[in-house]
Each structure stands twice: as structure tokens, then as C-alpha cells.
Model the fold of this input.
Amino acid sequence: MPWNSTHTKWLVDTGDRLKTADGKEVEVWEFRHQNDRKMLSAWATHFRNHYCFDNEIDYWRKGYKYTRSEYLDQIKFPDPKAAPGPSIRAGDFSEVLVADFLEYLKGYWVPRTRYGDKTVRNESTKGSDIIGFHIVKDGKFSSDDKLAIYEAKAQFSGKKPSARLQDAVNDSAKDITRKAESLNAIKQRLYNRSELDEASKIERFQNEVDHPYKEVYGAVALFDNPLFDGNLTSSTNATSHPYSANLALVVIKGDQMMALVHELYRRAADEA
Done:
């Protein structure tokens, strides 16, 4: 498979912790990316395959007479300039990075099914942003199995900091009602890719009444460093969240994040 986790070495827990208005702890991470050609290329491959598997590009592009790069730039990837393309790029990038955070640093299995069947490249995919699974023992039900549902909100541009962690908390509260549809969407996409063993794992989480498991929710705000405001983030209030007691709050910040987003998309297309 094309997946690669080397870029997650740049995700560093700063050790800083903020307190929200309702007393919850916020982890503060920093994405300390570097101009490492080998790691960026491996990451670009990983990122590109969320939208289109490398072994499928030649078939999908054939009717257009596009090169691989042209197909990705004009059909699959959000537009780099025309609105809302840049904001969709920032959103997709952030969701994939949080999926990597949840899988490679937190130990969940996160199926990568969210972007491959996008029909409009400059629109966000519907449903919960990131869903991860932890199954204690394959083929057995355990009440210690975990379903993690995370929401990601980014601010990589602009002049004034926004309350993106509060936005993520508010949208996370909606995930309770979207859970069944989101699980079904993952299962269908895995089935359509003939990943039947993986698709069957989703069934374990589709009947919580008969087979209880733990639910974990997360809200993540991603910032370009100049737009991160610790005081504004600390004003976040998660009291109204139905799973407030099991809600992880995370900030990921870094330098020149929007420039990094565009560079990753460029590499992903040019190196296909």
C-alpha cells in the first residue's frame, strides 16, 4: 500500500497545556516541517493516494488525454487559487494530517476512504471528518474496543485569529447523529475497493446496543503560528458537547502552513 508515516516525525508535542473555560485540557502540538526532499516526496505519495491510487491514475486520465499531473490538478485536487479551492485544500490537508496523528501517534486504524470518490473537487466531503477504530482482538467483541471520531478546523490564512477550536467542538457535537451514516460510507467504500476483510471490521461498530464499545471524540484546531492565540483558544467551552467527558482537545500549529499545503499538492501532482 502507498501509505507512509515518516512525516509524522515532524509532529512534536510541545508539552504546553491550555485550560478551557470549562476546565478541560488542550494539548498543544507543533508541526515542525523541514525542507527534506526525501520525506516530502514520501509524504506527497501518501497524500496523493487519498484522492486516487497510483495504480488507477492512468485509467482515469485516459479519456481526457491528460498527463498524470494534469489529471490530478484539474480533476481531483482542489483549485489552488479560485475560491473556495484554497480553503478546501486547507481543510482536506488538515483532515489527512489529523488522520495521520490519530493512526500513527495514537494507535488507531483509520481507513483512508474519504476523498477518492469526490465528485466536486472544490467541495468538502460530507460526514464526520476523521474516524478511527481500535479493536482489542480481531474476531472478538470487547467493551474495550474504541471508536474515535475527530473534527478538524484550520486557519492558515487571514489577519485575525479565529476561535477554530470552538468551531471544532461545535461540529464534533453533530457527529453523534452522523455516526451511522459515516460508518456506512466507510464500509461501502472499502467494499467497492474489494477490501472485504477491512469492510467487515466496520460491522463491529454498527450495533452498539448488542455489542458495546467505547466512544472517543476529538476536536482539533490547526493554525499557522501567527494566527494562534492561546487566550482565544482557552475561551473554548465544551460543556454542551454530549460526550464532553470523553472529548480530546488538540491544537496543531506550525510555520508557513498554507505555503506547505500548496507545496504538498504541487509535489503530489508533479511526482505522480
Observations:
- The radius of gyration is 19 Å.
- Residues 161 and 227 are 5 Å apart (CA to CA).
- The chain has a mean pLDDT of 96.
- The longest strand covers residues 214-224.
